[in-house]
Every structure is written in C-alpha cells, then in structure tokens.
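Posting this for the archive.
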Amino acid sequence: DVALVESGGGSVQAGGTLKLSCAVSRFTRGSLCMGWFRQAPGKEREGIAAIDSDGSTAYADSVKGRFTISQDTARNTLYLQMDSLKPEDTAMYYCAAGWPRDWARPNDYNYWGQGTQVTVSS
C-alpha cells in the first residue's frame, strides 16, 4: 500500500501564498499518477492538479496559472505551490495516488491522505 501525509496548510490573506507537501511512503514512479484535490464545506471533492509518471501535468481551470504541482522523487514528496490565493480557494486539500482514467475524478484514485486545511481570508 501507499501512505500519504499532507502538510503545509494554514490561514492566509487573499493574494498570499502557501506550499502544500505530501509525503509518500512508497514512490513507484513507473506507474503512479499523483493528484491534489480539495473539498469545501457542502461541495463535492474536486480535482485541481495532477502529475503523471512521465511528468506531464494537468490543472483545473480554477487554479491554472496560480497553482503549480511538482514532485521530488528523491524525497518521495509531492508539492502544490499555491500563489495569488483567493477566498474561494478555502477548502480541505488532499493528495491522492493511483492509476486514474480521468485525473480529476476522485473515484479513480486508490490512495488518499488525511487532508490539510487551507483558509483564505479577504
């Protein structure tokens, strides 16, 4: 199995930055796709970014140009750099791993972290 542990969440003002990390217990770069998701109260979990085993990335329109997904395979860590944060970015953020057919669909992922809270105030 793969264990994922997120960190780096917190409270910031609009326009601020945060960098989330996700420590991965097993990093099989030959196969796994890694994704970041978020879920706000009363809303469905949404995919916001993903990075495949070949390094290709994908982003939701809502974060494109503001968020950057990256990975450090030597440190078995996934990152999400979040710039120009907006109040609507407030949510619990999760990292996930798996072999999705659709990178943005939560049900396509096999492994999940416990989440880290991001709160953006106006």
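Residues 1 and 26 are 8 Å apart (CA to CA). The chain has a mean pLDDT of 94.
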